[in-house]
Amino acid sequence: MNQDTIFLLKGKVQNYAWGGTDFIAQLLNLENKEKKPIAEYWMGAHPSASSTIFMNNEEVSLNEIINKNPGKYIGAKVNQKFGELPYLFKILDVKEMLSIQVHPSKTEAEKGFDAEEEAGILITDKKRNYKDRNHKPEVMVALSEFWLLHGFLTRERLSAVLQSIPEFQTLIPIFEKDGYKALYREVMEMPQPEVDKLLEPLVQRELKSQTNDKSQPGFWVTKLYKNHSGDKFEKIDRGIFSIYLFNIVKAMPGDAVFQGAGVPHAYLEGQNVELMANSDNVLRGGLTPKHVDVPELLKHTTFEGIIPSIMQGEVMENKEKNYPCPIPDFGITKIDSVSNQIINNKSFSAEIIFVTDGEITIESAENSLTVFGGEAVFILPQTAYKINSGESGTAFKAYVPIIN
């Protein structure tokens, strides 16, 4: 029987339309002659796209071996609390804007899933909101300059935006009297002809201005409609309201942003490492051809202004950089390994380490693997191991925090 505790892991590529064609292909050393969009690389045991690990010279489904022996592959305490590997680890390449979205809390996800099951809505139905009973908090660490929408502007800043845009003048009394929820409901439930009438002159003005400043909403409006020709629009996406009402956040390489339940957000551009709870529950509100359910989105949105928190990470005793996340499902660290430096560690849960650059060697008492940029390993729970590098290497580690 195989006694290895460290295994080479192979993830799954996802060819979503919003992805770039080069970044992930080059990172994973894949040919992409047809220039297909490669949006995400999944590492985990999600049943719809499970990773595989190499065991006894064979590729084995990570989801299947966890189901057969969860105590060994994710740990007894993790299995007791979550019943699965509770995280999904990803690399993203965002070329085109993602949908305006909100993720439900765990309690609300359970309610929503059960209600749709009772209603007989198939999991495969495109109008289905809840694909599972789990919440979907997530954290991203930028690999490049990365732009995203994250939460509502503070009251003072949002008021200034409404005042500065002629088309938004009629919205000022609504916001002043009844606040964020009334304002957002007004624009999200507005009949489409009114949306078109209100936003078309604004979009036309932004297209003429052609700003190159990515911190301004106009840049993203221009990008959204860069291929538009003619004077008239068939339909204006109401997601544009969110570009003006939300914080536009810039994260530099190594910066992280956590997004919990209820925080409206959307990725705009760039590459990142993303770690999330093992869920596919997304409530969408625009900037997408996918199913949009405004009432459900409004039901689960946190209506308050926020100042985005950008984490630079905290260096721990073992030299790994930790990005604290306020949930029990996952944790993430950044590993910068330099020549002759040894990082000692012991896994509590199953861990996945993905190398983004250079090379690192991971060694336990049972076996060792040297992994290069674009490669990943799966480490069994309760494994003492050390990391070193002949030259240098950068990696990110996903794990489950210790459960007492």
UniProtKB/TrEMBL annotation:
Domain Phosphomannose isomerase type I catalytic: from-to ranges: 7-152
CDD domains: cupin_PMI_type_I_N
Record keyword Isomerase present: yes
Cofactor: Zn(2+)
Cofactor remark: Binds 1 zinc ion per subunit.
Pfam family, one: PMI_typeI_cat
Enzyme class: isomerase
Gene Ontology terms: cellular component: cytosol
Residues engaged in binding Zn(2+): 101, 103, 138, 265
Catalytically driven reaction(s): D-mannose 6-phosphate = D-fructose 6-phosphate
Entries under InterPro entries matching the protein: Man6P_Isoase-1, Mannose-6-P_Isomerase, Pmannose_isomerase-type1_CS, PMI_typeI_cat, RmlC-like_jellyroll, RmlC_Cupin_sf
The enzyme's E.C. designation: 5.3.1.8
Keywords of the record: Isomerase, Metal-binding, Zinc
Biological process annotations from GO: carbohydrate metabolic process; GDP-mannose biosynthetic process
Active site, per annotation: 284
GO molecular function, one term: mannose-6-phosphate isomerase activity
PANTHER family in the record: MANNOSE-6-PHOSPHATE ISOMERASE (PTHR10309)
The family this protein is said to belong to: Belongs to the mannose-6-phosphate isomerase type 1 family.
Protein known as: mannose-6-phosphate isomerase
Species: Arachidicoccus soli
